[in-house]
Amino acid sequence: MMKKILNMTDSEIVDAIQSRSLNICVIGIGRIGLPTALSFANSGLPTIGIDINEKLVEMINSRNFPLKDEPGYDVIFNKVVHEKKFKATTNFNEGVNSSDVIILSLPTPMDDKNIPDYSALLSVAKKLHDELSDGKLIIIESTVEPGFVEKDFLETVEGKDQKLKIGKNFCLGVCPETANPGQILNDFERLPRLVGAIDKHTQNLIIKLYKHVFTVNLISMPDCKTANAVKLTTNVFRDLNIAFVNELALIFEKAGIDIMTVLEAAKTKYNFQVHYPSAGVGGPCLPVNSYQMINFAKNFTSKTFELVEVGRKINENMPFHTVELLEDALNEINLPLSGATILILGASYKPDVKDIQISPVENIVKLLKEKGANIQIYDPYFKNSKIFGITTLDDFVPNLKNSNGLIIATAHKDFHNIDPKFLKSKMKNPVVIDSKNIINQHLAKNVGLIYRGIGRGKL
Ligand SMILES: NC(=O)c1ccc[n+]([C@@H]2O[C@H](COP(=O)([O-])OP(=O)(O)OC[C@H]3O[C@@H](n4cnc5c(N)ncnc54)[C@H](O)[C@@H]3O)[C@@H](O)[C@H]2O)c1
Which of 421, 419, 428, 417 has the alpha carbon at shortest distance from 446? Predict the structure, then answer.
């Protein structure tokens, strides 16, 4: 019988990987967990995905790939399902106890007061406490605050009754996921990964295992909390830099300085890393990670983490600013927003993905509703679906003739080639708010659009 992974030496784990005798289980097979599970299966290791979403499990087991916006994984999915290397289940015990390695890719959202919500991870930790058989390796890929793994998670798996003991009954580490939705395969093949663990032996096991699956550089972290701190630091850095350009945009608009011209020139300086202004920052990562950082910092300072708080406020104000720009543009033709028909292009929080989690578009819609506008939404990833309380269009062109204003809210590829001349000829009133600055503003003016971009001012 094969030794338990917890007690394997370096050469034993290499042998177990080579002979494909290690079984992998991924709990949470969503945006990140499913591609992760498919990569493990594609490396030859039998993999099972566990999820509480019955529809998702059913879809996967009937060979219907759910992540159509993740290029490359459809092919891998068909291959590993055909080879019977991958299947999904809702049965926790079946998945966990038939596996040597348990990878957690569970959601870590926040509640309506912006407090991080780790209930999915903690409920799975409790189940592991109750059900886990001896000798397994648990790896957390979810994004969590530094210290959460060592304290809350570990304490829950071990339990107050100390039924399980780390190092004796199981081992534990982290490998925070950093891939970008829409390009996960590409990122899995090039982004270095951080590995932290409760002890050096576990870290070695994880590095050997991930080296087999991913061809990227694996960076050893001194512990779990440092690995989790790196993950948060990179995303908070981005959230803050976007807040910086968003605030610059508000000032430059008034000063008659075009932010895009400034950024294009600024990025020629070797130590300037460019970020762009927009209608806000969404998705399950950046906003949540900033609040995780704020929550984490509370443990160590009597003040709040002011800089991150301010950055969040600036980014959360951008949907309001977008609507202000719209009102200002409508005002130029003496049209009130109340009663106007506004067409929104894009609902996803980022280009070319089907994902509306924490999308700034939701607040734009809410504000427009409050102000009495009639709202229409077109998004190529959400045709004829109900989002933000509105049934989306399956094409936007026929609706231009009834539109008093248009907001480009997401920079999907489909919108990059929109011709200002076409908009001018088709729209009822040629009012265009370009929250992604993808339209050539000089062209917009020349053809007679009433155009506003974020940070671009009036022409
Ligand atoms: N999406 C991203 O861009 C991204 C990037 C890097 C890291 N992350 C992190 O990865 C983690 C997962 O994020 P995601 O975007 O894949 O989330 P997701 O919502 O797409 O997927 C999570 C899956 O977990 C399932 N689930 C929830 N509770 C469960 C439970 N108790 N038992 C079993 N399954 C359960 C859900 O049904 C869902 O399918 C989060 O911590 C996130 O912050 C996400």
Answer: 421
Q: CA-to-CA distance for 26 and 35, rounded, in angstroms?
A: 10
With a CB cutoff of 8 Å and minimum separation 6, the contacts of 120 are 28, 106, 107, 108
Dist. CA 114 → ligand 1 center (Å) = 18
Section 76-88 average pLDDT: 97
Q: Indicate the average pLDDT of the chain.
A: 96
Residue from 48, 140, 157 nearest 97 by CA: 48
What distance in angstroms lies between residue 142's CA and the mean position of ligand 1's atoms?
7
pLDDT, tens digit, for every residue of 329-386? 999 999 999 999 999 999 999 999 999 999 999 999 999 999 999 999 999 999 999 9
Confidence of residue 96 (pLDDT cuts 50, 70, 90): very high
Pocket of ligand 1 (CB under 6 A): 27-33, 50-53, 56, 105-108, 120, 123-124, 142-143, 177-179, 181, 284-285
Measured by CA distance, the residue closest to atom 1 of ligand 1 is 31
* Sheet architecture: strand order including 341-345: 374-378, 341-345, 405-408, 431-434, 450-453
Do 428 and 404 touch, CB atoms closer than 8 A?
Answer: yes
What is the whole-number distance in angstroms between the Cα of residue 147 and the centre of ligand 1?
A: 20
Query: Measured between alpha carbons, how far is residue 325 from residues 201, 280, 321, 406 in Å?
Result: 57, 14, 6, 11
